[in-house]
Amino acid sequence: MLAVWYERQGPADEVLQFGDLPDPEPGPAEVRVRLTRSGVNPGDTKKRGDWLGYGMPFPRIIPHSDGAGLIDAVGAGVDQGRVGRRVGVYGAQSYRPFGTAAQLTVVPANQVVDLPDDVSDDVGACLGIPGITAHRAVFADGPITGITVLVHGVLGAVGTLAAQLARWAGATVIGTVRRHDDLQQVNAAVATHAVALVHVEAEVALHHVVELVVDLLARTTRQGVSDLRDAMTPQPCGCTTMVVMSRVTDRRPCSPASLPRHALGLHRLVADNESGRFGQAHPTDLLRR
Description:
By secondary structure, this protein is α+β, with helices and mostly antiparallel strands. The protein is built from nine helices and 13 strands. The protein has two domains: 2-126, Medium-chain alcohol dehydrogenases, catalytic domain (Quinone Oxidoreductase, Chain A, domain 1, Alpha-Beta Complex); 129-270, Rossmann fold (3-Layer(aba) Sandwich), CATH 3.40.50. The strands form three sheets. Strands 10-9-8-11-12-13 form a six-stranded mixed β-sheet. Strands 6-3-4-5-7 form a five-stranded antiparallel β-sheet. It has a two-stranded antiparallel ribbon with strand order 1-2. Helix 5 links the parallel strand 8 (148-151) and strand 9.
């Protein structure tokens, strides 16, 4: 098969190699997918760059955890009827060496999801890590039925999925964008309301109604939050992107103790899902609607 891989970490133009590798064969409880799309997530590039300083977990790595394609072979214990199914793949390179930047990938059978006819391969390849991340960010702190949820960056991959999941769960969703011109891009089916955070008045209005904040930001829980305005201010992108969910328990200026923030590393979410700790955090949740 043709594939892209690296055997040392560093900038893409210095470490990525392209060529032929042996076709992988599925083992027990595994499926092989002939890929049409490979989804790239921030975590994929960070692992290649060794952003945490852990070094190479495997001698050779084919990057990218998400993708889409057709099942063309199955291992022992997997229904042969799955061959030929069009699927989305997630977690292919999460704690495994060979991801989706190749013509073929082998993954556990429970890490492929059948794609409905009206869901394209492009979309299917983008639902894995963003979808699991959005689900965890929205539901980690308990039920959200009947509350008001603020989703920063509602036009982004995680933001738009978080907004949809929150609406399906019975929440009122306010999505934010940075500019007035972006408001027309917000689908009414995604967010109940959309706000452009270009005026102080918008923050003042949100201060009185928001009960849960979902954000992508570049800081850690150790820094805490001094008040609700801090929680509602979109943060600049940085090298340490975290997904943060904040449940607002007091609409007055509050301490970090009364405004808990749960920061989640993207790839840890896949591990938690595999261990069954968060059984609902599965891309099929996004495809059933």
